[in-house]
Amino acid sequence: MHTGFTRFQAFAIHLLISSAILGSFLSIVFFIWYPQPFFVVEGLVDIVWVLVGVDVVLGPALTLVVFKTGKPGLKRDLSIIAAIQIIGFIYGANTFYQEKPYFAVFYDSDYFEVIPASTMKDISKIDPDLNHSKFGGPIIVFVDSPTEIDDLKIILEDMKKGGPSIHLRPEYYRPLKGHINKIFRLSQNLDELQKIPANNAAISQFKTEYGERIADFVYFPITGSLTSRLLVIDSRTESVVDYININPKSKNPG
C-alpha cells in the first residue's frame, strides 16, 4: 500500500477523524440523551473513558506504531485497527442508548426517579402531550395514579403476575405542568440542606447566582442508578431551571 503520508501524518489524520466522530456522538449523549444532571446520576463516566481510550487513544496510537509507507500488509493492519475501534464504538453507543433515561418520574415519594429505556416494556399508551421520542431526551413527569378501586385492583393483580408497578406504567404519566402543586409540600428545605458541610459551597454558589429568584423555586432529589442530585423547579413556570451539584440523600459528598 503506497501513500504519500509519513507515520506522524497518518497518526494525526487518524486522531482528527476519530476525535470528530466521537465528539459528534458525545455531543448527542451530553446535550440530548443525558443532559445534566442525568449524566451525573446515571454514572456513565466509565463508558465515556472506554470510548475515548479505544477510539481516540488506542486507535491512533496503533496507527502510529504500524504505519509505514510501502509496508507489506499495511492495509490489513489498518483494517484490524479500524475493526477494533468500530467494535468499541458500537459497544459504548449501544450502552448509552439502552440505558438512556426516558423519564424522571415522581410517584408516591419525595423524589424523582430516573427510568432508563431498558426498563420500559411498553410506551405505546403514553400521553401524546408528553411529545416523547425514543431518540430524544428525558422528560420530567408526574404519575397520576388511578383513584378507582377497581382500577387499582387490576393493577395489583397484574403486578402479582410480574407486571410493572404503577411508576413504570407510562399510561399514567402526565406533564409536570398542571401537577406540581400536588408535590409542593414534599419540597426539600434548601436552608436545612445547606447546614450539611458537604453542601454549603454548592448551595451558596447557587443562591448567589439566582438571587431573589430562589423564592419561587422548589427542590426535589433526582435519583439515578448511581447517585442523586437536587433538581430545581420554578413554581411559577412549573419547569426545571437547574440542578444543584449535591447529593440531597446523603450527609456526605456523593
How would you describe what is shown here?
With 254 residues, the chain is of the alpha/beta class. It has three domains: 7-99; 101-184, no CATH class; 187-254, no CATH class. 44% of the residues lie in helices and 15% in strands. The protein has a seven-stranded mixed sheet with strand order 4-3-1-2-5-6-7. Helix 1 (7-33) runs antiparallel to helix 3 (45-66). The termini are far apart. The model has no long low-confidence stretch (mean pLDDT 89).
Short note summarizing the structure:
The chain is built from seven helices and seven strands; from the N terminus they run ααααβββαβααβββ. By secondary structure, the protein is of the alpha/beta class.
Write the layout of secondary structure elements.
Layout: H1 7-33, H2 38-42, H3 45-66, H4 74-99, E1 101-106, E2 112-116, E3 139-143, H5 149-160, E4 173-175, H6 190-194, H7 197-210, E5 217-223, E6 228-234, E7 239-244
Helix pairs in contact: 1-3, 1-4, 3-4
**Rg, nearest Å:** 24 Å
| Domains (count) | 3
Record the strand order, biggest sheet.
Answer: 4-3-1-2-5-6-7
Shape: globular
What string, H for helix and E for strand, traces the elements in order?
HHHHEEEHEHHEEE
Structural class: alpha/beta
Helical content (DSSP H or I, runs of 4+): 40-55%
Low-confidence stretches: none
What percent of residues are in strands?
Answer: 15-25%
Q: Note the total helix count.
A: 7
Average of pLDDT: 89
C-alpha end-to-end distance:
53 Å
Total strands: the figure is 7
Task: Give the biggest sheet.
Answer: 7 strands, mixed
